[in-house]
Amino acid sequence: MADMTAETTATRQVSFSALRPSREAVVGTLAVLAFLVLWQIAPSMGWVNGRFTSRPTEVFFAAIDVFRKDDFLFHARISLTEFVAGFALAIIVSIPLGVLLGTSKIARYLIDPPLMALYIAPTLVLLPIMVIWLGIDMAPKIAVVFLGAVFPIVLNTMAGMSEADPRFLRMARSFGATKLDIFMRVLVPGSLPALLTGIRLAVGRAVLGVIVGELFVSQAGIGYQINLYGSAMRIDRLLVYVLIVSAFGYTLTILVRSVENRIRDWRSK
Amino acid sequence: MAQIEIRDLGIDYRKPKSNEVFSAVDNVELSIEKGEFVTIVGSSGCGKSTLLMAVAGLVNLSRGSIKIDGKQVTGPGPDRAVVFQEASLLPWRSVRGNVKFGLEMQRWNGGDLNERAMQMIRLVGLSRFSDYHPHQLSGGMRQRVNIARALAVDPDVLLMDEPFGALDAQTREIMGTELLRIWERHKKTALFVTHDIDEAIFLADKIVVMGRNPGHIKEVIKVDLPRPRDEAILDSDDFHSLRKRLRAHLAEDMSSMQLVKEVA
Ligand SMILES: Nc1ncnc2c1ncn2[C@@H]1O[C@H](COP(=O)(O)OP(=O)(O)OP(=O)(O)O)[C@@H](O)[C@H]1O
Ligand SMILES: [Mg+2]
User: Fold this and answer.
1) Bridge partner list, B6
2) How far is B62 from chain A (nearest CA, A)?
3) Is residue B182 included in any domain, yes or no?
4) Domain range holding B131?
5) Cα(B129)–Cα(B116) distance, rounded to whole angstroms?
């Protein structure tokens, strides 16, 4: 009885404090504001050359321009298509592969070392090969996104499956669980958090893949625009695109992380 | 014939990082009647868990046989359920979900399954916590879930490996009394491993005392204390003399362990 009341209050406190701005959030906001002010006045004070740094106000107006008349949607659609196609392919391939590796020791011994090597190597170095094989349309970018995203998901799914708690397996067997039961009701739910961790890590690598891919070889897309404004010294517009990219990556990561946290908390069923 | 017949049982394990084999349990002969409550005591490492897991069908026998109702044990079966030392609750399932686990494995159908699970949760006094997840429960509550999960599948034999081992003395006593209350209602055959001498006596119709190197049965002690039992029995003369006898056994084992240490 006493336990239970304590428990509920504790839970409530946590959820309330999540709504109230935390000290961390306040400090963070102040720091950003201070940075913006400094950035704004630095060129006028002669500390830096405004031609290279632009100003927050300039970036703001550039953003309005970009969204109004810069074919923003056209470029965004191309980058997004590359991202989604590459990521979807990565998920389709990586989850079954991760499951196979996580449940079969032999498969693991066989494929783990080359997989690790590919994971650690920056997959972007393969871009020139991709261009030779696939041309300069969307395909090489999709391939680079795929290569960036596939390994973190495979490796995390594999780890989640193969590191299942042996006590759970024994418990399940004691109730007469079949292999399929153990897979569906112990291994899969148990490795879901690891899978999501893999997806979250993959998001960052995939975003990087799209943009860098487009920076090097393309005629359209967000990365192409960044490259264009970079060579034209339009720092304000360049920064607008950079901000769009990081906002996109950040939002996706936060989204996945929140699902991950909910599952890791084991509150969901 | 007794319900559980263990004949000339031996279980060998391989030592880690070598091909050497050693016997964890050897020459075990034991008969257990239907509805009997049997406790197993012995010093750490003498093979209590191994013996219990063998009856559960979770380890391979190297020698001898285990029969339940005349049928050879070859693996886990719905006639037995295990309460593990560590609760082994699935953290992503609620109390209700965990109690349902065994029922799902044994293919109970939907309506029966839910009702049965709730009934078991009530039996162990956790109705108000059925939607809690394991991390929100105390150690004692987790062990209740562990017991409810095993009872739910309605086994003939309940196998318990130090289910209260990690609990404090007081909770342990309460859980023991409650376990007896439940057992007296259902009269399942029970095999209960423990380190605690008082617990071993309090619960048992029969105490199996095990020794080590290799694990074997030293003595089987009948406990004729009247049932139903409550804490008052702990102060009775019969209880005292049983306690003395068991202490002597375990002290013997301890001193032989000491000797091994000194030699090494
Ligand atoms: N899977 C295994 N592989 C190898 N050796 C094992 C295995 N399981 C147990 N053993 C060994 O068998 C012996 C008996 O172990 P067991 O767990 O049955 O003892 P126990 O009486 O339950 O001890 P405790 O009271 O500490 O739980 C020990 O020496 C242990 O190291
Ligand atoms: Mg043990």
Assistant:
1) B30, B66
2) 20
3) no
4) 87-154
5) 16
